[in-house]
Design goal:
The protein is mainly α. It has one domain. Helices cover 64% and strands 0% of the residues. The longest helix has 40 residues.
Length: 406
């Protein structure tokens, strides 16, 4: 039975209250046999008094993440602190990644985007000339409208081919930027040639991932489209077809967004972990699991920010192509000048936004591994070993999980 307040041991005769000593300084009760000593409520401290208080934390975090403790300093050898990241950490890290290595980020982005844009413009301009000539020819009206079909098909084919070239260029660019970020976490800087050496073996897997994602999204809308066409051909009520189309379109958009979010981390996994397409897609599903809405929100906000910046940068260049009479533009060649100016604007916008977008996605991948696999402990151990002069783990092996199915 616990004693009440009145049953506690009373201080010895002659004892009087006094100001306790400073924290960490031995007091009169450090020795229980000293005259006038009296134990404090918590009992006697160890010989020599209480230990000195810990120093105030410098950038520490106090979350319940495994391995962290109160006041622990956060290691930051590179662009991010080696702990689970907040959205601000990802955005700051993406900007710091660009500023720390502008030649391998902005320079690489400008190079790839420029090459892709030149090829796309060449394809479009070569196909637009015959189409414009056929469209302005008075003979291609009325019964001779079939004369437009071949130039139109060539124009659409060039646009499709240009889109494929751009998509492949973006896949390669994103992969190279991902490899650069994987080194920038520890403050390392690599050249464009070194970035290409990292990603060149992963390009087929990256292209395969992009194609598979496109086919999945295309299939989501293709099935409902075929169903609606069949219903309309069978004579179904127009109102029912319209209502069903709206429902299926909404469901298709939601499902496509769901798949995009769940597969968003597959690209960084392919580059940094060196795994195949199927394994990377499964890996992305596992990493996003349990944190879907946060991942979706960060990706959505990043897409909005990137879209606004790209629009603001490209708008002055695109303005010239939207002024004047369309026929006069084509005849005078102003359309071509406007198209080239729009391409220049797209190059500048892509040069700025692509590294930032790739940086946020890769850092989101790193954050999910920290939260789901305690990967920050691996990074902290690596950073401490490097601080002590040890060679550390090879960069191509550091990001590979010990258990691929973890």
């Amino acid at each position: 039975m616990t004693d009440g307040p009145g049953d506690r041991e009373q201080p010895p005769p002659g004892w009087s209250p006094q100001q306790p000593p400073a924290y960490g300084v031995p007091g009169p009760w450090a020795d229980p046999n000293a005259p006038g000593s009296y134990p404090p409520p918590g009992g006697y401290p160890p010989p020599g008094g209480y230990p000195p208080p810990p120093p105030p934390p410098q950038g520490g975090y106090y979350g319940g993440h495994p391995g962290g403790h109160y006041g622990a300093p956060v290691l930051k050898p590179g662009i991010i602190p080696l702990r689970p990241l907040q959205m601000g950490d990802m955005y700051n890290g993406a900007v710091a990644f660009i500023r720390a290595n502008p030649k391998a980020t902005l320079g690489l982005s400008a190079l790839v985007v420029t090459v892709a844009e030149i090829i796309t413009l060449a394809l479009q301009l070569s196909a637009f000339g015959p189409f414009a000539a056929a469209a302005l020819d008075p003979a291609t009206t009325g019964e001779d409208i079939d004369a437009l079909l071949a130039p139109l098909a060539a124009l659409l084919g060039s646009a499709l081919l240009g889109g494929i070239v751009t998509a492949v260029a973006m896949v390669v660019l994103t992969g190279m930027l991902t490899g650069i970020i994987g080194r920038a976490v520890f403050g390392e800087q690599i050249s464009i040639g070194q970035a290409w050496a990292i990603v060149k073996g992963r390009v087929p897997a990256l292209i395969g991932l992009a194609l598979l994602q496109s086919l999945i999204v295309f299939g989501v809308f293709l099935g409902p489209g075929i169903l609606l066409i069949m219903l309309a051909a069978a004579g179904a009520p127009e109102g029912a077809v319209i209502l069903l189309s709206l429902v299926l379109l909404t469901a298709g958009i939601c499902f496509a967004v769901f798949l995009y979010t769940k597969l968003s981390l597959a690209g960084p996994a392919i580059v940094l972990e060196g795994i195949g397409v199927g394994t990377a897609m499964s890996r992305s599903f596992r990493l996003v699991k349990g944190d879907f809405w946060r991942v979706f929100g960060i990706l959505l906000l990043t897409a909005i920010v990137v879209g606004l910046v790209a629009t603001a940068v490209a708008a002055p260049f695109s303005l010239f192509s939207a002024v004047g009479d369309p026929n006069a533009v084509v005849i005078d060649g102003k359309f071509y000048a406007g198209l080239i100016l729009s391409g220049v604007g797209a190059i500048i916008a892509g040069t700025i936004t692509n590294p930032f977008s790739a940086g946020v996605t890769t850092l989101l991948y790193a954050d999910r591994r920290m939260r789901a696999e305690a990967f920050d402990l691996v990074l902290q151990t690596e950073a401490l070993e490097r601080q002590q002069g040890a060679p550390g783990t090879a960069p191509e092996n550091l990001w590979r999980p010990r258990d691929p199915w973890s």
